[in-house]
Amino acid sequence: MQEREIKLLFKAGVFDSCQAAPVSMARGWRLKFMTKQNEVMTLDLQRSRKEREFKSLDGAAAVARRIGFEWLNVHIGDMEWQEKV
């Protein structure tokens, strides 16, 4: 989904949380949006249906904040923590 569509769904109260997970250790991060019905939605690039990848966790957190999330769940393997965005 596009960022504007995810922002509208966020305002409608569809999402439960936002997660950041590494694509691979060398490539960067991706955002996953968890709905209250336990569905997963991902953020797509603006001009294609490919998942958007962020070079840094800071970049992913900035987009999550712009959408409206206050907290970002970060997952790296077995490690998990929350960051305030």
Question: Could you list some keywords that capture this structure?
Answer:
2 helices, 5-stranded mixed beta sheet, alpha+beta, single chain, 85 residues
Structure description:
The protein has 2 helices and 5 strands. It has 85 residues and is α+β, with helices and mostly antiparallel strands. The protein has one domain. The longest helix is centred in the C-terminal third of the chain and has 11 residues, at 57-67. The protein starts with a helix and ends with a strand. The mean pLDDT is 93.
Give a quick rundown of the structure.
The protein is α+β, with helices and mostly antiparallel strands. 24% of the residues lie in helices and 39% in strands.
Topology of helices and strands:
Blueprint: H1 3-11, E1 15-24, E2 28-35, E3 40-42, H2 57-67, E4 71-76, E5 79-84
Parallel strand pairs: 1-4
Antiparallel strand pairs: 1-2, 2-3, 4-5
Shape: globular
Record field, number of beta strands: 5
What share of residues is helical?
10-25%
Encode the helix/strand succession as letters.
HEEEHEE
Mean pLDDT: 93
For the largest beta-sheet, the strand count, sense and barrel status come to: 5 strands, mixed
Tell me the span between the first and last alpha carbons. 21 Å
Q: Which secondary-structure class do the elements indicate? A: alpha+beta
Question: What percentage of the residues does DSSP assign to strands (E)?
Answer: 35-45%
Widest beta sheet: strand line-up:
3-2-1-4-5
| Structural domain tally | 1
* Cα-based radius of gyration, to the nearest Å: 12 Å
Please report the number of helical segments: 2
Contiguous uncertain segments of 5+ residues:
none
